[in-house]
Description:
By secondary structure, this protein is mainly α. It has one domain (about 1-150). It has helices at about 1-30, 45-70, 75-105, 125-150. Helix 1 runs antiparallel to helix 2 (about 45-70) and helix 2 packs antiparallel against helix 3 (about 75-105). The longest helix is centred in the middle third of the chain and has 30 residues, at about 75-105. About 15% of the residues are buried.
Amino acid sequence: MGMGLMLSVAATTLCGVTETLMRRTANNEGFADRPDAVTSMSAMWLIPQYSFFGLAEAVNTIGQIEFIYSQLPKSMTSVGMALSTLGGTLASVIGVILVRIVDAATNKGGKEGWLADNINRGHLDYYYWLLTAMGVVNLGYYYICCWAFGPMGARPGSANAGVESES
């Protein structure tokens, strides 16, 4: 799961870089007040970040499933999977709430907010940098939890309990 978090942080970093370049390109080409205009920047700039998001989701899901099946008793695995799905749903709701909070906080004083209707005047890149910072904090929290939890093989009842490591 740590690899999924790292890929997610890399993806949001790429989003921030790409959005900064897109905004700069649009404004340099005179499209600051024309959000519907087409810039010279290729849509192919989006491929790396969405590839990283897809890989992060796949790695994260596999890690969660592996953790659930290796650490929970058989009778609890379906509950664990349901809670995992519920966690994804709650994350989506929190994402919507975060967008509303950022929009409200950055629209104060009559100035153009980060998530403005005119993408060339707003600062969507700042939003991506906020998500990147939150991802870095989450990654640090994940490593603290991993340290506190300890190695998987050391837990009684785990799939690796009693198996000696070769290192």
